[in-house]
Amino acid sequence: MRTRHRSAALLTALALAALTGCGAHVAEDGKDGAAKASGTGGGGSGHYPVTIENCGTRTTYDKAPRRVVTNDVGIADIMFALGLEDHMAGYVMPGYRGRIDAVAWKDAYGKVPWLSKKAITKEIALDARADLVFAGWNYGFGEDSDVTPASLAKLGIGSYVLTESCRNGTDGGQGSARGVMPPLDALYTDLKTLGKIFDVEDRADALIATYRKQIADAQAKVPKDGARPTVFLYDGGQDKPMTSGRFAGPHDIITKAGGDHVMKDLHDSWTTVGWESVVERDPDVIVINDYGTPTAAQKKAFLKSYGPLKNVSAIKNDRIFVLDYADLVESPRNPAAVAALSGYLRNVGGH
Fold first, then answer.
1. What is the distance between the alpha carbons of residues 288 and 305, in angstroms, rounded to a whole number?
2. Is 200 in contact with 230 (CB distance < 8 Å)?
3. Of 26, 53, 63, 224, which residue is least crowded by CB atoms under 10 Å?
4. Each residue of 12-27: pLDDT tens digit?
5. 53: region left, alpha or beta (phi > 0 left; psi from -120 to 50 alpha)
6. Alpha-carbon distance values, 63 to 51, 94, 101 (Å)
7. What is the C-alpha end-to-end distance of the chain, expressed in Å?
8. Which residues is 270 bridged to in the sheet?
9. How far apart are CA 298 and CA 305, in angstroms?
10. Per residue in 200-229, is it b (16+ CB within 10 Å) or e — as a string?
11. Are 25 and 59 in contact (CB under 8 A)?
């Protein structure tokens, strides 16, 4: 019965896509890279068609998608910050990933269906009658799950890839290394491009201007003299720590806040390193990414008890700062995270 139900859902989805899809078609494929948008501009019927470039793929939209499904909290945040909840069929995210009760768009979270607290699947997208899935590589898209832009296209469902997660080809053709531009630029790029797709460019421009000012205000308070405190981002892991390279949100958050990101030479977004590299780089501060289990308190307890780290400056001086998961992945919460970390780092001297 389950197989028969899925087959029926597939046929229904394909029929709906043919009749009422989001009006998007792939124009051409290019190298994985920055997203660009071009079109007629303006509002109303004169706005479409518009052609955008996202992670190297050009897509033309004849109209705005109406039933978007997002994966993960930062991606839902982007849609809600742009005021696009009426264009959404639902969102997918674990319950432990980010508070949703203290954001300006909290009412949107209550209005739009929470489809699953597990990983996104093709079945979820089909059941929601999605015309577009907004996710990212390792933020819902992945060959292991067979949820990819290519597999969704076969079901008549379009895709938009989170720019922070664009694959960059720096790992010998393996395809897993991610990031093609500075993380905050990735946020601004997605806001600008989605503004074009959904004909809300004024909203996108206003958000970008607000975020730039928020960050500039935080930077203005960074001491001009003295060494920048060095900072390591600890996501989790005991055998090997998961951390941020230069293309994940923490890099720009740390740098704009007045710190020196110790893993800035890693041409990837979220990745693992060896503890020996952390010891060698001897960070003044460790920022913990707080989500799920182990909790931030448990992560801190591990760091302080882990023998190889005992002489690291951050551990010796108990300089451990906590930020929420939703603050650190690409999201509209990044600018506030810059301000929060900047306030902490102002009281920390460099080496």
1. 15
2. no
3. 224
4. 444 444 334 567 776 5
5. beta
6. 11, 31, 32
7. 65
8. 244
9. 11
10. bbebbeebbeebeebbeebeeeeeeeeebb
11. yes
Residues 6 or more apart whose Cβ sits within 8 Å of residue 313: 230, 282, 283, 284, 319, 351
pLDDT band at 174 (very low <50, low <70, confident <90, very high): low
d(CA 60, CA 135) in angstroms, rounded, equals 19
| Predicted TM-score (pTM) of this structure | 0.87
pLDDT tens column, 19-63: 345 677 765 444 444 444 444 344 445 899 999 999 999 999 999
The token pair at 7 is 């087959």
C-alpha 179/C-alpha 182 separation (Å) is: 8
Q: Is the peptide bond before 335 cis (omega within 30 degrees of 0)?
A: no
The tokens of 95 are what? 């319950």
C-alpha 169/C-alpha 180 separation (Å) is 9
CA distances from 322 to 129, 228, 248, 344 (A): 38, 19, 17, 10
The pLDDT score that the predictor gives to residue 28 is 44
